[in-house]
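--- STAGE predict ---
source: upstream dedup step, 1 unique chain passed
mode: sequence only
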Amino acid sequence: MVTAEELTTEWTDDGLGGPCIDCGESLICPTCNPQEMQAIDKDVRNLARSATTQVARYLVDNFYVAQHNRIRAQNQIRACAEDGESAELLRLNLKNFRYAENQIAKILDEYSAAQELGQWARSIHGIGPVITAGLLAHIDLDIAKTPAAIWRFAGLDPTVKWEKGKKRPWNTTLKTLCFKIASSFEKVQNSDKDFYGHLMIERKNYETERNELGLYKEQADAKLATGSFKALTPARKAYESGKLPAGQIRARAFRWVEKLFLSHYFQVGYEIKHGKSPARPWVIAIGGHQDFIAPPNWEGPSQ
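--- STAGE serialize ---
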């Protein structure tokens, strides 16, 4: 089995064509040669801080590819151990994938921390440098003039349909990032530092109450009418009773908190750029009331 030390060791191509002179590995070991790594890191930091949004988008994509490969390699090593097979080559792959994941994360850390809007996003419990970099790279506030425009671009506007033969009307990467954001809020909901997670749970309870009252019967009937549910699944049983299944209620709460966060992201970005608050047409419904929820960790423009 791979050890915890092996899972956390970072490696990189030395860029010089030779092995590490201290440990003999064909890759530079930052533990053996920290001076070399610091010199490389300094150059990378400077490049990261001035990276274009296109480069940042590619790096975010590369990070998730590296993360996927690292997780897959860990699973493969575990499977080999269960079968009594050697996994030395897979462990080498794991080190490479782990290093790539860590290095890209460091670059995105520098990129997102160099921007004031990125600093605000990272101040939110549950939002890290990679997701922040993705938001900065995919949301152009010069184009998105309202929170609703961001919602549509993120696939959160239910009135927007993807018609057959037409270009997808939303950005799939941003939509995935928003789901990751809501998932993260769900995980940190019990933390003292949490802001959005407990609001999402309140919204979920609100949606559950409405569902139990049969207020979503029309949506349930429409879903059932598609004929997509042949087997007697729990989802089909819920629809037949005039209610939405639990997964749909969770998804509604997810979309609500995603839209709330994006509204705050827009407001903070607008105030950074213009020095004043935007109009507030995007009030968010909580518990049946229309209340404006101010962005956390943000004092707003000075008056």
